[in-house]
Amino acid sequence: MGLETILIKLQDGGDSSIFSGMDWRSVAGFLPQSGVIIITDHNVRDIYGGDFPPFPVISVLPGEKSKSLETIAGIVEEMLKAGIGRDGFVLGIGGGVVCDIAGFVASVYMRGVRFGFVSTTLLSQVDASTGGKNGVNSKDAKNIIGVFNNPGFVICDQAMLKTLSDDEYRSGLSELVKTALIKDSGLLSLIEEHTEEIINRDTQTLATLIARAISIKAGIVESDMREKGERRLLNFGHTLGHAAELEYSVPHGKAVAWGMLQAMLFSVEKGFFKMEELERVSALFRRLQVLPVQSIDHEIVAGRIIYDKKRTGKEINFIFLENPGNAFSARVSLEELAGFLMKSGT
User: Fold this and answer.
1) pTM for the complete prediction?
2) What architecture is domain 4-163?
3) What is the DSSP letter of 109?
């Protein structure tokens, strides 16, 4: 498995380095000798805790429910007890939830301390740990409380993906497909050609695909750190997916896969996208087994989109597809989006 280093050069002068294919235990060489706090979840600690660097560990419950201000407050108290100062360092070892929590805590603790990630899930390696979005949820909205702040480094060790549950692993595949759909039709073809290797978690295949996806996202983040333009494309499938995720506790990637199918169907209805391409992507989703099993009530999802953070007044930035690899953002009224959902759910 070859090591690839992707550097995000930010307009504020800071850099963020992503190392794909690196042994995660190499993280010790990136840390200061003292003042480090490790944030992880119980599952990751049970599997990998014996090899953690020798620093205090704060472990949270796995899952979205830990992404709350209550969790943040508890972690802050633990950091104070551990004597972490302004020269401290937060190391998040985990998936998207842990990376969100660790990045958010590091950004607000004493008005900001340094931080980095060891990304342990496919979803976080492809998407969540890269790009500097760190947020927690309210009762009704996902990631509604957050900051933009990039980690100094992210280590993506594809060998760690072997320990994921099938459900967690398949959930992460949808973000890989999303990246291809919005920006790289060649990546989509590679995913289709190597479906069997992907399902079998072939480390070399995953390393190649993940590094390509990270490079795409890095380029987008460099040009639009604060989501004023091109970065909005990364939200493809998320407006409806987040609503389904919160309402039904569907794994993030599977909810987003459902949201992407709805967005493609909306694109077809508006004449932007071809039905045969939608059928092509639907077939890929079925082969990868990334779609949620339970049925989703479109009326309930329509009622939740008012809480989406991309909303402005009675409109929302919605991501459509023209072709695989070519997405665009357009303003859509909440009324029109809800009307489409109600019609597509009948």
Assistant:
1) 0.90
2) 3-Layer(aba) Sandwich (3.40)
3) G
